[in-house]
Amino acid sequence: MKLVHKNIEKDGCGSISLIPEESEDMWHAYNLIAEGDAVTASTVRKVQTESSTGSSTSNRVRTTLTIRVETIDFDTQACVLRLKGRNIVENQYVKMGAYHTLDLELNRKFILQKILWDSVALERVDMACDPAQNADVAAVVMQEGLAHICLITPSMTLVRSKIDMTIPRKRKGFTQQHEKGLNKFYDAVMQGILRHVEFSVVKCVIIASPGFVKDQFFEYMMQQAVKTDNKLLIDNKSKFLLVKASSGFKHSLKEVLQEPAVITKISDTKAASEVKLLESFYTMLQLEPAKAFYGKKHVEKANEAMAIEILMISDKLFRCQDVLKRKEYVTLVDSVRENGGDVRIFSSMHVSGEQLDQLTGIAAILRFPMPELEDSDAEDNSDVDSDSD
Amino acid sequence: MARHRNVRNRSYSDDYDYDDLYGHSVEDESCLSPSDTEQWMYDRSRNQQAISAFLDSQNDIQEEAEDEVYDASHPGLERRDSVGLRSLNLSEDEEARLMSCLDELRNVLGDSVPDNVLIQSVINHKFDFNKALDEILNNKQSKDCDRPKEEPVKPLPTVHIEAAKDLVSTTSKAPIVISTNLEPKAKGVVKGFKVSSSDGSSSSSQTPRDQSPIAERGSTPKPDDDTRIVKVKESKVDPKKQYTDERGSEKDHLYIVVIGHVDAGKSTLMGRILCDLGEVSQRTLHKYEQESKKIGKQSFMYAWVLDETGEERVRGITMDVGRAQFETKTKKVIILDAPGHADFIPNMITGAGQADVALLVVDATTGEFESGFELGGQTREHALLVRSLGVNQLAVAVNKLDTTNWSQERFNEITKKLKAFLKQAGFKDSDVTFVPCSGLTGENLIKPPSESELLKWYNGPCLLDVIDNFNVPERPVSKPLRMSINDVFKGTGSGFCVAGRIENGILNKGDKVLVCPTKEMAEVRGLSINDMSSNVAFAGDQVSVTLSGVDIQNVSVGYILSDPVQQVPVTTRFEARLVVFNVKVPITKGFPVLIHHQSLVESANIVKLKALLNKSTGELVKKKPRCLGNNSVAVVDIEVCRPICVERYKDVKELGRVMLRVSGVTIAAGLVTDIYNT
Ligand SMILES: Nc1nc2c(ncn2[C@@H]2O[C@H](COP(=O)(O)OP(=O)(O)OP(=O)(O)O)[C@@H](O)[C@H]2O)c(=O)[nH]1
Ligand SMILES: [Mg+2]
């Protein structure tokens, strides 16, 4: 994302103009824009003109509109952000108050006005505009008959393709069917990689599986590449990295991201560090349960005691429509920071963020044990439940 | 990523033809009346067929779909136009109702019936979808009957099950119609689950902002709970009687899974028994000997009897369950040789799910027993798994004792350690037998020992006698049919085969069965038990079933063949009572796991920790615990990504057990206590 202009008053009200440059930026925009904000962007509008003879023609014109956002939709697969709201600035083609749906477009500027730019929103702008944050990795997790081809960008894990096939088992005297099925499966995965992995963009392609599937598959793919003289695969052979994973389900990406071989290759990406952090929360819960808490109520109490060392919070919580609720979370984040704690905002689009979402979206590792919190479970639980149900 | 960028850019700025949905204001539409727009606007729910046909063939990413979806909608629209509705003089309201009826009908019938027939019957029945459908189907059937023989079970519509009656009622001449409301099956191949397309015009991948887009993606649509016309089956004979008639004179079938740490010698032991019993010809054995020698794996020559794939032989490890059979004095024994390597535990679970009893093989070699027995070793995990899967009789082969010069001390040491552990795992002392042996030398396998060192201290039974002494469990033949599918393959003749174990009930050649969770009807064209063709199979049998009436693409490992009337429950959420194993980190709510249920593996989430129970008394210790630690017992809710077939443990034990695994480690075993309607 490119920051073009920033104008924020002392009271936090103001506008920022940004140019999304890649699809990842749509995710950032999705997290920035809230209901009630005003967005100005260029758009295409259908206009009906009636000629003197009475026949009407319809034309498409490009115009710039400003709308007060009412609904926000994000298409995760295509990375398209769709904003709907009423027009609030007089325009040649569109009446005041008329509804319009804006699709934010790549490489076109948009201006976002907010009544309050809070710390979390500003942090998001910084993150989005940080050019260092760029390292796309492709990962294929697979087992016999199941594969997920994923793209891991700094703040998103996108499943580009899922291959799910039934492979006949080995049976007495009929091992060919098994082997044929396996080859068909490998072929489908290979086609998936060719179709969905942009070799010029990704740093490496991780192939992960239990057992020997990865090795067998890689061998198959390279053999085919040589046979069909596929330059793309042959030239990029060194980009492939084979590691262990316990299954072909998407969640095993968590294990992949903890593999030392992967970590050295992709250094400290957000996805990997979030996996590690969540893991350390669970370890703490095992070893010293009084120093690990989740759920808003527990975490807030821990914060009151200035006990939070690391706060993990899902960006999903900041997308809530309820302005007051968002404010509570922002206040919590600010206060933890003030007290010298570390705050990590997880992307709900990564595997660990997905898990944190399920775990109420908020968890904390404390500096000192607070066993009294554990005892307050009974009253807390109603809250834990209402957070998720 | 650039690829996607291009696609999107193009479709949004250049072709703005379908911008009815967005990009312009509501006002603009004023020139169209609602009913007109209805005809011209693209509506996803209208054209299920087009969409699902697409999704089927390419169940990967969505956004490329969009272009095609819109294209695909055109034929639908044309078809609708050609009907010539104008001539019918219907009111707007009636027209709308007609349209929706037609859509539903087409979903069920596909294009097999001309539109004018459909319209006529819809109008005849005053827009009552069900009645119209009945009429059309009945007409169709009578036509079908006139025709000379056709494929008996076409992809649908109605399925007849031969004339029928309940055990009690005697006079029901008219077939009992259970329900209509059919599902579109005329469409292409559905792999896995139907993709719901009733979400109106909004793109299904859009997500409300406060919801994580990912969460939305993960949850697949629920299966339509459709029931279909099924005429209740006439029960011919008492199942128990049929069982004793058929099997009474035969030896009992006993399924035994062979488990243990990698390289404990399981395959060798089984291969050796098979050879010694004459189940493997001398010629074959000689061939194995020569060939294994060639690749420097001669010590695996007996293992090759069970390790049949090239990959297994080259690597010298079992990867999937091997099967073979032999007979003892009183039993016909089917062995399932499980892989010991930790990576193949999913296959081992499949094998263990089909077994009545287990044979645990441990390597007595110094250091080897220890590595299999320590935390994370498969001796432990396998034993816990089979116990959790309902196996309660166990034989332990203390193998490779030849390497310790038949040391009694070593045997006793191993026995003592294992006894303590197995007891803790839930095996009764009296149900566990220890046998010293060597698979490689064949000592104490099918004959009493001849080795003098062993004779000095051992006078118990040989392995074969221990196997012969196992009790064969009661077979639940009179319960409604349930068969879990663990393999799908092409048979030699027509149709395709599924293999699996009949958990409950009886399966006859010619029976109609319901393939679940997709709920498609199929007919049993052929049956074979242990490679012998048969007309009937009973609970407990491992069978291959040739099916017709469904597409091979629509059946997967982990599916259940169910009695069409007393159907297996299908759900995405259930309550289970968990026993937590040794876990590295505690289980919290939101914990992502893989659930293993028979041969099915599916990703799931523990969505709620309801109660922590006392391990021995089962009393409530704490409501809504924060987390579950080692060896705890708890009640939780589990949500599965896709609908699966499960039963409450108290109804059907075999289908009421689940194993939970994370990162390749079994973290808990569960019994299904309640099933939620989803
Ligand atoms: N000395 C000795 N070696 C044995 C004995 N049984 C098996 N072995 C050797 O142990 C090795 C492994 O044997 P397998 O039968 O493949 O072991 P497995 O348990 O089936 O292994 P997986 O299926 O891969 O878990 C082979 O080299 C065998 O020759 C025995 O009784 N004595
Ligand atoms: Mg083996």
TrEMBL record, chain A:
InterPro entries registered for this protein in UniProt: eFR1_2_sf (IPR042226), eRF1_2 (IPR005141), eRF1_3 (IPR005142), eRF1_Pelota-like_N (IPR005140), Pelota/DOM34_N (IPR038069), Pelota_N (IPR058547), Ribosomal_eL30-like_sf (IPR029064), TF_pelota (IPR004405)
Cofactor(s) recorded in Swiss-Prot or TrEMBL: a divalent metal cation
The protein's role, per its UniProt record: Component of the Pelota-HBS1L complex, a complex that recognizes stalled ribosomes and triggers the No-Go Decay (NGD) pathway. In the Pelota-HBS1L complex, pelo recognizes ribosomes stalled at the 3' end of an mRNA and engages stalled ribosomes by destabilizing mRNA in the mRNA channel.
Main location: cytoplasm
Family affiliation: Belongs to the eukaryotic release factor 1 family. Pelota subfamily.
Phylogenetic placement of the source organism: Eukaryota, Metazoa, Ecdysozoa, Arthropoda, Hexapoda
Domain of life according to the entry: Eukaryota
Protein name: Protein pelota homolog
Localization (cell): Cytoplasm
TrEMBL record, chain B:
InterPro entries: EFTu-like_2, GTP-eEF1A_C, HBS1-like_N, HBS1-like_N_sf, P-loop_NTPase, T_Tr_GTP-bd_dom, TRAFAC_GTPase_members, Transl_B-barrel_sf
Residue stretches making up the Tr-type G domain: 251-477
Origin: domain of life: Eukaryota
SUPFAM superfamilies in alphabetical order: EF-Tu/eEF-1alpha/eIF2-gamma C-terminal domain, HBS1-like domain, P-loop containing nucleoside triphosphate hydrolases, Translation proteins
Subcellular location: Cytoplasm
Keyword GTP-binding: yes
Gene3D superfamilies linked: DNA helicase RuvA subunit, C-terminal domain, P-loop containing nucleotide triphosphate hydrolases, Translation factors
Chain positions covered by the region annotation Disordered: 193-246
Alphabetic keyword roster: Cytoplasm, GTP-binding, Hydrolase, Nucleotide-binding, Phosphoprotein, Protein biosynthesis, Translation regulation
Basic and acidic residues bias: start-end ranges: 222-246
Low complexity composition bias: residue spans: 193-205
CDD domains (UniProt xref): EF1_alpha, HBS1-like_II, HBS1_C_III
Catalysed conversion reaction: GTP + H2O = GDP + phosphate + H(+)
A family per Pfam: GTP_EFTU
UniProt record similarity statement: Belongs to the TRAFAC class translation factor GTPase superfamily. Classic translation factor GTPase family. EF-Tu/EF-1A subfamily.
Full protein name: Tr-type G domain-containing protein
Organism whose genome encodes this protein: Loxostege sticticalis (Beet webworm moth)
